[in-house]
Backbone:
């Protein structure tokens, strides 16, 4: 059975697919605009989004804040009226300023995880109140990984802000990059146990009248249909879009996915204290051998301690995104090894329609 449009509050997408936010520099205006133009929801990652600015090393946060609007505008030019949103990590230093910048730039939605975005509605409302004549309300979506997290954030929003999330993104343990699970939870994971948790979250969200998007490990149209048969309103996909012509990453980054074997995909401990999923490479071998690559601080994640971190995760991710893969961290989802060729975004979206 094929499912039709995805309706998330005021957002109506022709194809029930959200392209996941991937930083640093993997999902910017090029990829997000292409997904939006093809009928889905394109998401720009705000993580160190200003890394190409000349003064980034001197003042990274200022560069990031001024680049958010630039990337949203560039994505809109590509999107041809499609839906463009942003992903903002709660753990980001000066999180509130990133949210304000995205709202002022007219983002259609904000998807927010890496912590529970408890105060997101307040920041957005305060910013929108200073925007007379704004054309739309910003749709808000917390990322959750359990029924407990879903309950905490929805109850808090209702009690403090009298607002429900416009939709929820339930991100499972097969996702890429930083993960919302402890190492022991990832070790204990089975497809059956997580599907049980996902089904419970879908039921919980339905009782609250909130659409839920399934995320993590979704790669094919069959994966999407299975999630929607469980009651999900749509799916979020990241890894599948990395090996597209439109992805903002360097060709060498995409080639690393094409060359990866299943056994090359590993769980790593990030310098910011969270487990993450990445492709094993020369850089990770050097880190495992005890080499330290800490040169300056780019003020990315609140939980990073530059004094003890083995490497600067911002620099490692920028290296990877710009093609220096042997000196970079190659975040990926569990299905990166399945990539066989460079695809067109529009073809993937047609498969998902």
Residues:
């Amino acid at each position: 059975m094929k499912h039709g449009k995805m309706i998330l509050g005021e957002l109506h997408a022709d194809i029930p697919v959200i392209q996941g936010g991937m930083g640093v520099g993997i999902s910017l205006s090029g990829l997000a605009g292409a997904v939006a133009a093809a009928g889905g929801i394109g998401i720009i990652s705000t993580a160190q989004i200003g890394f190409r600015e000349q003064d980034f090393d001197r003042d990274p946060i200022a560069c990031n804040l001024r680049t958010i609007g630039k990337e949203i505008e560039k994505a809109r030019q590509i999107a041809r009226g499609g839906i463009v949103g942003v992903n903002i990590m709660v753990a980001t230093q000066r999180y509130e300023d990133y949210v304000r910048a995205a709202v002022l730039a007219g983002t259609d939605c904000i998807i927010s995880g890496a912590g529970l975005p408890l105060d997101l509605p307040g920041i957005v409302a305060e910013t929108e109140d200073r925007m007379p004549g704004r054309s739309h309300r910003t749709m808000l979506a917390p990322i959750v990984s359990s029924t407990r997290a879903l309950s905490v954030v929805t109850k808090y929003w209702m009690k403090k802000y009298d607002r429900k999330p416009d939709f929820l993104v339930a991100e499972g343990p097969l996702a890429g990059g930083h993960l919302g699970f402890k190492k022991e939870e990832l070790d204990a994971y089975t497809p059956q146990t997580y599907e049980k948790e996902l089904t419970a979250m879908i039921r919980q969200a339905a009782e609250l009248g909130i659409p839920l998007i399934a995320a993590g490990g979704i790669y094919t149209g069959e994966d999407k249909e299975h999630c929607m048969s469980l009651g999900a309103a749509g799916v979020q996909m990241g890894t599948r879009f990395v090996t597209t012509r439109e992805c903002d990453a360097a060709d060498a980054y995409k080639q690393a996915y094409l060359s990866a074997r299943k056994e090359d995909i590993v769980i790593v401990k990030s310098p910011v204290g969270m487990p993450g999923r990445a492709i094993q490479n020369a850089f990770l071998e050097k880190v495992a051998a005890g080499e330290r690559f800490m040169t300056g601080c780019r003020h990315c994640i609140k939980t990073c301690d530059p004094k003890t971190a083995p490497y600067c995760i911002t620099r490692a991710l920028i290296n990877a995104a710009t093609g220096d893969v042997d000196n970079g961290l190659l975040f990926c989802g569990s299905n990166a090894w399945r990539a066989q060729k460079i695809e067109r975004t529009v073809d993937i979206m047609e498969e998902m329609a």
Q: What stands out?
A: Residues 93 and 205 are 30 Å apart (CA to CA). The chain has 13 helices and 13 strands.
